[in-house]
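Deliverable D5.2: sample structural annotation.
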Amino acid sequence: MKQLRDTLLTGLAPLTWGTTYIVTTELLPAGHPLLASLVRALPAGLIALAIARQLPSGAWWWKSAVLGVLNIGAFFPLLFIAAYHLPGGVAATLGAAQPLIVAVLVVVILRQPLSWPLLGWGLVGMLGVALIVLRSTAQLDTVGLIAGLAGTASMALGVVLAKRWGKPPQVSAIGYAGWLLTAGGLLLLPITFIAEGAPPAVDAPALFGYAWLGIVGGLVAYTLWFRGIRILPIGSVAVLGLVSPLAAAALGAIVLGQTFGAVQNVGFVLAMAAIVGGQITAGRRKKLVPNP
C-alpha cells in the first residue's frame, strides 16, 4: 500500500508536466519557451531553498550541479530545440524512449542486471505514445532528432545518477529539490536572455500560467519527482515518465477539442498498459535486486 501511494504521488509530477504544452500555448506570450523553463526552475528552486534553509556541503555542491544540469538546465533547452525542429509527435515519441535508456544505464551505472521485461514495457510505452501523437506527414530533421535524443538521454542519466547518489539523510525533500532546481535555473538564466532577450510584458492569464509552471510544475512536481527517485525502484520511476505525453494528449482532446481515432485509442491503452506493467515488473525486481 505504501509503495502504491508513493507511486501515485510520484506520478503527479509527470502528470503536472503534461500541462506545460497547453499552458504555454494558451496562456503565455508566444516565442519565449526558454523563459517559461526558467520561470519553472529558478524561482521554484529559490523558494525551496528559503523554505528548507539547507545548502549543499562537500561533494554535494558538484553533485547538485550535475543533477540540476542533467534533469533541468540541459534538458529544457534540448527539449525546445527538438520541438522547434520536429513535429510535436516525433519529439514526444523520442521523449518516450527514456525508459529504454534508463534500462541500459541501470546496467552500466547501478551494476544491476538488464531487466528484459522492463525493456519490453518501455518499447510498448514508446509504441503507444507514437500511435497517439505521430502522423503520417511527420518530417524528420537531423538537428531535431539529435536534440530530442540528447535531451531524453540527459534526463535519463540524471534520473539514474540521482538514484545512485541518493541525498544526504539530514536534507528534506524540498531542500534537495531546491538544490537541483536552482542549479538548473542558474544555467538557464544566461541561455534564456541570450536566446530570447528581455522578458515580454505579461497579462493576468500569463501571470497565472507562469505561477502554475513555477509553483505546481516546478516546486511541487520536482519535490515529488526527486522524492520518488529516491524511494521507488528506478524502473518504476522511468516508466512513470510516460504519464506526461498522455496527460498532454488528453488535455488537447478535452480543452482544445482535438479528436482521437481508433489508432490513438489503441495507443492510449498500450501506454497505460506499459505504465502499469512497468510498476509490477519494477516491484518484483526490487525483491530480487536491492536498491544501491
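Annotation notes: Residues 2-288 form one domain. The first helix runs from residue 2 to 17.
The annotation will be released with the project's public dataset once the embargo ends.
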